[in-house]
Design brief:
10% helix; single chain; 2 helices; 144 residues; 5-stranded antiparallel beta sheet; 45% strand; mainly beta
Length: 144
């Protein structure tokens, strides 16, 4: 076995044990709409975007892009470049191994054991959130 080889990759089955329900807190987030294609340096690495994508700014000033379709599914537009996450319950689990996951938007996100949460957006659709950012932006209270 090679060093850093993943022995238990993230899958829907991986979430069956040790995961918990969560949702994004209704924190206000700034956004800009990209006028041309580019790349933004996220906390998990570089992510490409197209013109028209929303460039969101998180609690530490970090940025990440989302498509207009995803923006409308996930955010409430409050106007003047401010949005708030819709309350959508998801599963999350603290990474118990190092690895990476492909995203639904075509990028690969890397994570490390004990430092990142894997959030399940849907079947075989995952994202990576740094532990400190997860604590600031996700809520687990009041979910049954």
């Amino acid at each position: 076995m090679k060093i850093n080889e993943v022995t238990s990759p993230v899958s829907d089955k991986w979430f069956e044990q040790g995961s918990f329900k969560t949702f994004k807190k209704p924190n206000k987030e700034k956004y800009e709409i990209a006028q041309e294609p580019g790349t933004v340096q996220t906390l998990e690495g570089p992510v490409k975007y197209e013109a028209g994508h929303y460039i969101m700014t998180g609690p530490k000033g970090e940025q990440y892009p989302i498509t207009p379709k995803k923006f409308n599914e996930l955010k409430d537009d409050l106007g003047n470049g401010i949005a708030s996450p819709k309350k959508i319950v998801k599963l999350a689990k603290l990474a118990d191994h190092d690895g990476s996951v492909p995203t639904s938007w075509g990028e690969t996100m890397h994570y490390t054991a004990g430092n990142d949460y894997i959030v399940k957006h849907g079947s075989n659709d995952y994202g990576v959130v740094k532990k400190d950012i997860f604590a600031q932006t996700y809520d687990t209270t009041g979910i049954k």
